[in-house]
Fold:
Amino acid sequence: MKKFTLLLTIICIMFITGCTMVRIDTGNIDNIVNVVLSKENVLYNHIGKGYKYYIPRGVTYIDTIEFNDKLYSNGNYYYLYIDAISYYYQKEIKHSKSSDSYYYKDININNKGGYIDIQQVEDKYLIDFMYNYAHVQSLVKKEDINEVILNSSYILSTVKFNNNVIRIMLNEDYFKYKEEKFQLFEEEKKNDNFLEYNG
Structure:
């Protein structure tokens, strides 16, 4: 009887505290962006200088140069730029829709601003996605737009900044140093032409 009661209690706890699953309609860019960015995502699996974020399953990290990360998934490269300086000084994000945009959306979710601007470039589409002082760009085929927007939404929604590290990096004196020559083992060299023999 105790085992049955314990099992019933565990099942009740699982139902009460169970996770909720949200289905995302990946056929609609607006829905992808609204659902993913409106969630409070606290996951991260990549740490940079003054920032961290989550790289979704199926996306591979390739390289970092300064605040630029290069990622890859399903034949598409993602170029992520973290604008730590604008974040630190809380600069307003300004961008306006161009007349030849294939798709454009201003974003203001969770008090964080941004935009998505997609433009056709010959037979491909340039995705320019900015949110929370982080910026993803990718040049993709039309059929890959929604997948790239979904992955980019997860990446951008998880970007978190470390104010202390950014403040240190912005302090010019932090990077100045005095170079000093240091030799741990000094050898005495003899400048003669005779071999030494110790017998």
Summary: Helices lie at 2-17, 29-38, 84-88, 145-157, 163-170. The chain is about 25% helix and 30% strand.
